[in-house]
Specification:
Blueprint (H helix, E strand, L loop, with lengths): L1 E5 L5 H8 L3 E7 L2 H10 L4 E3 L15 E5 L21 H14 L7 E7 L9 H13 L3 E8 L10 E8 L35 H8 L35 E4 L2 E4 L2 H7 L16 H10 L3 H17 L6
Parallel strand pairs: 1-2, 1-4, 2-3, 4-5
Antiparallel strand pairs: 5-7, 6-7, 8-9
Helix pairs in contact: 1-8
The chain binds S-adenosylmethionine.
S-adenosylmethionine binds next to helix 1 and strand 2.
Amino acid sequence: MRVISLFSGIGGLDKGFVDAGFKIVWANDFDKYAVQTYNANFDVPSTLADITTYPIEEIPEFDVLIGGFPCQPFSMMGQQKGFEDTRGTLFFRIAEIIAYQIDVRKHKPRAIILENVRALRTHDNGHTLARIKEILKEDLGYNVFDMNLNSSDYGVPQTRNRTYIVCFANDEVKEFDPPEKEKLTYYMQDVLEEDVPDKYFLSEKIRKTVLSSGSGGWVAKAETDLPIARPLCATMAKMHRASQDNYVTQDKGLRRLTPRECARLQGFDGPKSSDFVIPVSDSQAYKQFGNAVTVNVSRAVAKAVKTKLQEVGEWND
Ligand SMILES: C[S@@+](CC[C@H](N)C(=O)[O-])C[C@H]1O[C@@H](n2cnc3c(N)ncnc32)[C@H](O)[C@@H]1O
């Protein structure tokens, strides 16, 4: 199945789909550092370009579209501007790309898989998600399913809730259940590296700040060494308080996670492996892993999509 990957980042969605037997024929992102990491790890390089200006006719023909479109406008941490924010309109670009393929190329993509933050479900009292689903269903003609999936239900020790929207062109697909959950077999402590450089350990001053429970009207409990990590976020290079971020204790004291540990908590690597190539600076790597889709979740969704396509006789290698 030929897949195009929009907003490919470092390929969390892509890796899950490749593992499940799909073939990425084109990927795109406009962040040169994300593309650098992607291209160090995938056979087909991601094209560095802004998707809003990239000519649609130059995107190759595809059977499946995947995309974790930018979530800032829908995130609880953002200002909840949604469609009024131009980034929110990136969904419309996705719809245009699908429509071009249906109307001009006369080849309707068989499945569309989109990922976003959990808050997309509640944004504007559910109207934003309802509008997205309406466009996919009424304008583009898909059967549309949406679900919230948590990474810790799919084998990685990280709490990370995300909305997945899964669409099928075939009318026979009347239901699509969340993929079966997988048991956790390891925890955050199991992904830790040994002999970690001093730069990851906190100075006494920073340690005090991150462990403080906040001030004024905003007080939250500082907790470190959690068995299941808090959600990795794109701004973790800034080192948030321990009530929002992940810190672990090792011989030399309290430290932040290393980029490799982030790769493991996002499923790019197993608990002890270091195969995923990280060719960028630490601060770029934190941003990239914080932005990524957890590979295990993507793989579970991809396998379930493949099974559905096989059931309706639409799977091809
Ligand atoms: C949430 S991240 C996607 C992460 C990706 N699915 C992964 O697993 O690594 C969103 C990505 O969209 C990219 N992006 C945002 N606006 C874009 C645009 N106009 N054109 C191309 N890429 C864009 C960002 O650079 C970022 O890498």
